[in-house]
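Wed. Picked up where I left off yesterday with Family 2 glycosyl transferase. The coffee machine is broken again, so keeping this brief.
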Amino acid sequence: MQVSFIIPHKGRTEMLAQTVASIWQQDFAGDQFEVIVVTQNQDLDNGLLTAGDGRTAKLVFQTPDKTISASRNLGVRHAKGDYLAFLDADVELSSNWIKAMLAELNSAPDRVLVSAMQQCNDSAPPLEKIRTALSNADVDCNLRFLPGRNLLLARETFFAAGQFPEHLITCEDYYFTDQVHKHGKLFYSSAATYIHLGEDKILGEMYKKEIWRGQSNIQSIKGRNIPFSEIPSFIVPVWIAFFALMAVVSLLFISVNAAVGCIAAALLPIVIYAFRLYKLPSNTVSYWQILKFYLVYFPARIVGTFGGVIKAVELKQQ
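Structure written out below (tokens, as returned):
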């Protein structure tokens, strides 16, 4: 067995079915890969995950209290493949994904992890296009981190990196791929693609998700080195929160001019981030749409990050 696909799952089944269907349609020998779905849905129907030729996914049931990392690690314990492919339960792979990713992984001796490039339809809403452009800011190059939506690595690399961190609710992919990075290079490739079926499509939906995604931001720092390029992602939310608070204080106790200055300071990094994304070659969305995105994104990240810190402190005190 060459490749074991491991898919942690909870909740929606329609996108999971599409994900598994795209695996069955791979241009690769059917007896050379397997699909393992680690689900927290106790009533998941395996019939939804069966190929037309009768091949079916292996279902592994996980308790609802476990993290996504725990589900991925559990899936590995049931896997037979020499290579491990980790997918989210809402991605649709191009038919050449296995062939292309295996070729990319083995094309350089120091390469230890690969991921395919995100794409979206021309009819996708602006928010989905923005998310896709962000994912593709750097393509066909080595990166420090890779998101966990589609990853391929050798089994021995997985264990050498210490497996996925089960203590983190979110940001586990950043932590894990950073550990993998200690063993070699991570490559983001355009040789194959995927569509993120569950990508954010409206700002209100994104706001709620970003609060959830941000809750392990600070906890994910522990145990890994922070590259210089990642520092702004921690400083900017604090900067915005500080100057937004100072704007309120200035308006109440100092002067309107001071409040305006603080608001301008709070907005400055948002304007810069929006302009940087607008100038990316992969971007097809207007500056105004991007600015709206960041005006929602950063407040949500601030709420999620500080909420996660409070929750972590409360857990330590218990």
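Quick read: The first helix runs from residue 14 to 24.
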